[in-house]
Amino acid sequence: MKQPIPPFSHGPIRLRLLQEDDLPATLEWRNRDGARQQFFSGELISWDHHVAWFTRYADKNDDFVFIAEELESGQRIGQVSLYDVNLAHADAEVGRFIVAPEFAGRGLMRAAIEALSLLAATSLGLHRLRLEVKASNSRAYQLYESLRFEVTERSDSVIHMERKLADGP
Ligand SMILES: CC(C)(COP(=O)(O)OP(=O)(O)OC[C@H]1O[C@@H](n2cnc3c(N)ncnc32)[C@H](O)[C@@H]1OP(=O)(O)O)[C@@H](O)C(=O)NCCC(=O)NCCS
After folding, report:
1. Domain that holds residue 60
2. What integer is the mean pLDDT of 30-54?
3. Is residue 151 part of a domain?
4. 138: number of CA atoms within 13 Å, CB side?
5. Closest CA to 69 of 113, 24, 14, 9
6. Cα-to-centroid distance, 134 and ligand 1 (Å)
7. Is pLDDT at 126 greater than 60 in this prediction?
8. I need a surface site. Which of 12, 49, 159, 160 has the fewest CB within 10 A?
């Protein structure tokens, strides 16, 4: 069973756990041309596949997908997530970042990832976050670099990055 993480607000963003009634929106964002190709499995996802994924996800306690909402309006601005959470090692992977197209390029996903990092440190006690990004995804790479993620490994196709959190070693 998934541990409930209470909603977390920081700056212009409120993060709350994904719920079943968010699934139509998150499927649309994920399948959008231009977005889906940035993921390692870039194929179109069907509704049945998406719902089956959510059912498995709901039982996992190391995987947390958040809807980022604009605090002021309550509108969904995108999705961010923490997975492979290892409390003993105080680390996790972050990713599955997708912006709702109407909010793209407004600096809100930067704020959402910053809020996620703060939540990881303060609510879960994590010290280190890892991520993987396609080497061709320069927009996302620049964003992560400016959020103090550092390259740990690089190949022609994928870049591995890591960020130490404020209270970490
Ligand atoms: C990656 C993504 C979530 C960023 O969302 P966004 O709304 O563009 O993010 P922001 O507005 O917060 O932009 C933050 C940074 O992104 C980068 N960026 C945004 N638009 C850009 C553009 N047109 N060209 C290059 N870099 C850009 C910049 O570094 C920007 O920093 P700045 O504020 O100093 O300009 C969004 O582009 C997206 O959903 N992409 C498709 C899915 C994806 O690639 N996910 C990540 C997989 S690893």
Report:
1. 8-129
2. 94
3. no
4. 0
5. 14
6. 14
7. yes
8. 49
In a domain, 20, yes or no: yes
Could you tell me how many helices (H) and strands (E) the chain has, helices first?
Answer: 4, 8
Question: What CATH number should be reported for the domain holding residue 46?
Answer: 3.40.630.30
Q: Give the residue whose CA is nearest to atom 18 of ligand 1.
A: 139
Residue whose token pair is 């990004």: 133
Q: Please report the pLDDT score of residue 169 as a whole number.
A: 46
Residue whose CA lies nearest to ligand 1 atom number 13: 107
Distance (angstroms) between ligand 1 centre and the Cα of 1 equals: 33
Q: Is residue 2 part of a domain?
A: no
Instruction: Please give the number of the atom of ligand 1 that sits closest to the Cα of 38.
Output: 44
- The tally of domains found in the chain comes to 1
Whether 141 is in a domain gets the answer no
